[in-house]
Amino acid sequence: MSNPLLVARDLVKTHGSTPALRGASVDLHAGEILAVTGASGSGKSTLLHCLAGIVRPDEGTVDYDGERLDRLPEKRLGELRRTDFGVVFQFGQLIPELTAADNVALPLLLAGTPRSAAREQAGEWLERFGVRGQEALRPGEMSGGQAQRVALARALVTGPRIVFADEPTGALDSLAGEQVMTALVHTARETGTAVLLITHDAQVAAYTDREVSLRDGTVTAEGAWHPSADGTSGPSAAGTAGSTGTTSTEATR
Ligand SMILES: Nc1ncnc2c1ncn2[C@@H]1O[C@H](COP(=O)(O)OP(=O)(O)OP(=O)(O)O)[C@@H](O)[C@H]1O
């Protein structure tokens, strides 16, 4: 079995006087699609922020591919956030003044890709997420589902190894939510990108390989990780509805 790509151990994080994490541990494998569930206030977003290097835990360790993320200097963390990690939030957080194409091209431009190549790649990613033809629209001119698909294109355009998604369908109706999840899972499987996905929604969790549940800042339930034959991804024996023996192609239909 492959070693996990990301390993968090005994994370503790307190916001002011509010404890958010009280010793949470979780692993994420390369290519794995992991759901993090739990009641409101159980610490899901704080866990994601610690794992993505957005906030530092007060205690505990986060190892990412041989580096101690919780101890890295800001500069290296910034690099990793630009190159290895993609992040999507509940409200896509696209830049309102920029068109869809420019929002998606931006991470490439920041990484030094020439403008014409960045525009071309942005177009390809918008196509992948079914929003080609919307290039010139600004976020305020799109539906919520379109905006989330643009946000996913922006998160994946640089070829990250992990996408962190904090309730990406939480603000969408069920049809739009399903389209966004289908696009995310399909693309993640195609590209071998690991996804850590926070959700309240059992239907959304059903698209994933494995689920961990948080309660009061600790992990209370965890499915087992079973890589598939190619070693990159696979459903858990504990199995959620969408992963009970479905192939990646089936899961995205
Ligand atoms: N910036 C902050 N300042 C103060 N308290 C915070 C902050 N962020 C989170 N908290 C508190 O920490 C606890 C965990 O919050 P967190 O957002 O991680 O939980 P969550 O499971 O993601 O919740 P939700 O599902 O409602 O988004 C909650 O009690 C929350 O009120």
UniProtKB/TrEMBL annotation:
<dbReference type="InterPro" id="IPR027417">
    <property type="entry name" value="P-loop_NTPase"/>
</dbReference>
<keyword id="KW-0067">ATP-binding</keyword>
<feature type="region of interest" description="Disordered">
    <location>
        <begin position="222"/>
        <end position="253"/>
    </location>
</feature>
<dbReference type="InterPro" id="IPR017911">
    <property type="entry name" value="MacB-like_ATP-bd"/>
</dbReference>
<dbReference type="Pfam" id="PF00005">
    <property type="entry name" value="ABC_tran"/>
</dbReference>
<feature type="domain" description="ABC transporter">
    <location>
        <begin position="6"/>
        <end position="241"/>
    </location>
</feature>
<dbReference type="InterPro" id="IPR017871">
    <property type="entry name" value="ABC_transporter-like_CS"/>
</dbReference>
<dbReference type="InterPro" id="IPR003439">
    <property type="entry name" value="ABC_transporter-like_ATP-bd"/>
</dbReference>
<keyword id="KW-0547">Nucleotide-binding</keyword>
<dbReference type="InterPro" id="IPR003593">
    <property type="entry name" value="AAA+_ATPase"/>
</dbReference>
<dbReference type="InterPro" id="IPR015854">
    <property type="entry name" value="ABC_transpr_LolD-like"/>
</dbReference>
<protein>
    <submittedName>
        <fullName>ABC transporter ATP-binding protein</fullName>
    </submittedName>
</protein>
<feature type="compositionally biased region" description="Low complexity">
    <location>
        <begin position="228"/>
        <end position="253"/>
    </location>
</feature>
<dbReference type="GO" id="GO:0005524">
    <property type="term" value="F:ATP binding"/>
</dbReference>
<keyword id="KW-0813">Transport</keyword>
